[in-house]
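New to this. Look over this protein:
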Amino acid sequence: MQKTYNRIIQIAGNVITVEAKDVGYGNLAEISSRAGKSLAQVIRIDGEKVYLQVFSGSRGISTGDKVRFLGHPMKVSFTENLLGRLFNGAGLPRDNGPTLEENMIEIGGPSVNPAKRIIPRKMIRTGIPMIDIFNSLVESQKLPIFSVPGEPYNELLARIAMQAEIDLIILGGMGLKYDDYLFFRDTLEKNGSLSRAIFFVHTAQDPTVECLLVPDLSLAVAEQFALQGKRVLVLLTDMTNFCDALKEISITMEHIPSNRGYPGDLYSQLASRYEKAVDFDSAGSITILAVTTMPGDDVTHPVPDNTGYITEGQFYLRNKFIEPFGSLSRLKQLVNGKTRKDHRTIMDRMIQLFSDYREALEKQAMGFHMSEWDKKLLKYGKAFEEKMMNLSVDIPLEKALDLGWQILAENFEPAETGIKTELVKEFWPKTSSIA
């Protein structure tokens, strides 16, 4: 039942307050002012005081304007017509296409009942060796990409969107620069991947409340497609902007701040989104990759710190590389034993030798004498960085494993690698280059 109130008792920034009864948290309201009609969302209820965040801002709204509660939370249309479309954080078209209003579903619902989940068991191939070989991405996994502003994390997400062996991509952009939004759109369109993608994008100039809605819109649609049997990959960027939006509204509401001014329920806010990752027992799956930028490259910052307790590992993107040390997929062992029998061996030995390379670099920088083994490590490490760590490398898993053997063969004797003889006999290259 829709109720209308004719008095706004307070306007603070983009938050207005009315006295109302029987209103639900997260419900929508329509505000009628001289400037027209605006949507708002209930963000706090204190007795009969109801606080609403106005989507388009409070400019032009006065205390005598009408507030009509719609009786339901934010909804989004779920239909095949979403594919290839671009929407803002309020679910409205950005691409000049028609507004979709059929089959409206509520957003922000609870995560899936654990009884409906199954143990993750399938690998998502991306064509990126540092993921596929060393930290395999698994269906239904939730992984953050820890990075700093200026690193090519959006370029990495775009590559994954184009190359991942998945049915559907949903991109949720929060606080994106307009150039970044255009980059995602144009890159996927040029590659031919836009037809299997759905965009929900909040740019830096859009209302703050829309930033908070983007993950819920993306995950609500993802869940419906997953229930239809689709393997869905949700890409979110940047979750730090999402948390900053939470912080901004919390300050406006005069909540008691927690660590560095963030709200005390930051962990719960993040967990309620990340826990939507799921592999359904008799349907599809939702996998989440989410960029989290770290202010000052500080992993103890509240956003990455809380994120690390929720997710199943992380990718560290530093100096335009996925850093081998620190990056971790905690579920990789569920799938990398089912690929090729040399997968784990290549993964382990190449990283061990790369660790030795880093130590050799330190010795070189400090002016120590370099042994023949050190020189081999230095040559190996440079080849590893160029041929494996470079994000422009795009090869299937099997070719990436063959490339790993080739790099080892070009720099070491078989006995120096510490690899079992039976694997050396089967996989050691017969020539110096891959055919």
